[in-house]
Amino acid sequence: MNDTLFERIGGEAAVNAAVDIFYRKVLSDDSISQFFEDTDMDEQITKQKSFLTMAFGGPNKYTGADMRKAHAPLVEKGLNEAHFGAVAGHLQATLEELGVATKLVNEVMAIAASTHDDVLGL
Amino acid sequence: MIFAEKKLTPLDGESVLDCLLRHAVPVDHSCKSGNCQSCLLKLSSGKIDPGAQKGLKPTAIKQGFFLACQQPCELIEAASFIDAELIFSHARLVDKQFFNDETCRLLLEPVSPTYYHAGQFINLKNPHGVIRSYSIASLPSNDRFLELHVHKKSNGIMSHWIFDEFKVGDRIDFQGPIGECFYTCLSIEQPLILIGTSTGAAPLIGILKDALHSEHQGSIIFYHGARNFEGLYLHELLLELENSHSNFCYRPSITEELTSSENEHSGKIKTGRCNEIALQEMALSNTSTIANTLLFLCGNPEMVNMTRKRAFLAGVASKNIYIDPFEYKDLRQAAR
Predict the structure, then answer these.
(1) Which domain holds residue A107?
(2) ipTM of the complex
(3) What is the domain range of residue B100?
(4) Which residues in B lie closer than 8 A to residue A42 (C-beta atoms)?
(5) Residue A83 is part of a domain; what is its CATH number?
């Protein structure tokens, strides 16, 4: 199987199917919603799409340094390990809800986990 | 930053619009929120922030137009005004009627044919250079003139000018039509929910007329909210439409109590906020209906943004929510 993860998971259509489910879960979670509430919804949806595209192994323009810079204001507001874990949990639940095969879910979760240090500014 | 061949020194993190205004450069502007598009400028050299082109037409993007209020100065090396003829057309006022003391209806005849969708908005620019956005309540296929509803604001320099000085026969400059908040439907079976406060009803009546004209089959519910009965300025028209269309339902509400002389309406008019009433009723619908519903939200920006989020959490798809927040930025700076 030479196809990339992004192709196997369903590409942009998969991102579009996942974004509402994922964002709704994040916004409904009182332990993390504070990090997502401040900006306008269009902007948030665009950001979540970029995040999902990256996590799905798709084409994206983010470097580790970008991730670090983008999350720095949130780290200042108290973003920590527990919040990172909660978001990851919602990502996994979203994929499971969409019936994505376990092997693919694991690959996505591995990519998400790889952003850990940059997101938390460690 | 070089603007129109003059060198300006921006403050840290300043937007192009704020920098120009601070240097007393006479630049058109209104909402300062990236919605109205009246502060469009043209890039000569530098880089445009993606947020400063949100909602612009592809042709405008290609020409390097950007929204000055959303563009940080630091990315711009040089920029200039856009030729006014590229932005403004002219119209003539053919009729002005008052719905009540605070709300009037304008009918405008554009000098050249104007292609638009009911629910989009145009920016009017009066002879003093004041610019404000008004939504279009007319339907291009049925109505000869552009219909706008204007709400008089206590410190509103534009609405006062329109109420007191703008006369039938006068010409006025306008920009647009602009905006994505109009009737477009994947299927005529989709349920539509329209929620509007005050003259937020203007784009919604346009969207409603468009949907009924297109023989929309799905249910349509129109929640109109106002402070008092007078503010429900489309009451008679909406009741009439409700009687003549079995799939259309009109749900008026006011935040004050009905006066004793208005009590005959008490069965129809609820007390409370229209968006709260709508959200409560939506919570009772089944999830597949909600997921398929198209939602249009117009009027008070707080109401629009809060309802948008709650409706999304209740299961409405993000792409199915169309919003038109009426920003009154300049008013807030003035004492009420």
Answers:
(1) 5-119
(2) 0.88
(3) 87-180
(4) 54
(5) 1.10.490.10
Return the exposure string of B296-321: e unless at least 16 CB atoms fall within 10 Å of the residue's CB, then b.
bbbbbbebbeebbbbbbebbbbbebb
Long-range contacts from B301-307, C-beta under 8 angstroms, 24+ separation? B301/B325, B301/B326, B301/B327, B303/B195, B303/B197, B303/B273, B303/B275, B305/A40, B305/A41, B306/B275, B307/B195, B307/B275, B307/B278, B307/B279
Tell me if chain A has a CB within 8 Å of the CB of B54.
yes
Out of B50, B82, B114, a domain closes at: B82
A19 at interface of B, judged by CB pairs closer than 8 A? yes
Does B150 share its domain with B266? no
* Contact at CB, B313 and A23, closer than 8 angstroms: no
Same domain, B206 and B324: yes
| Contact assignment for A27 to B309 by CB distance below 8 Å | yes
**Residues B91 and B78 occupy one common structural domain:** no
Per-residue pLDDT of chain B (336 residues; tens, 9 = 90+): 999 999 999 999 999 999 999 999 999 999 998 989 999 999 999 999 999 999 898 889 999 999 999 999 999 999 999 999 999 999 999 999 999 999 999 999 999 999 999 999 999 999 999 999 999 999 999 999 999 999 999 889 999 999 999 999 999 999 999 998 999 877 899 999 999 999 999 999 999 999 999 999 999 999 999 999 999 999 999 999 999 999 999 999 999 999 988 888 888 999 999 999 999 999 999 999 999 999 999 999 999 999 999 999 999 999 999 999 887 654 444 433
Per the CB < 8 Å rule, is A40 touching B305?
yes
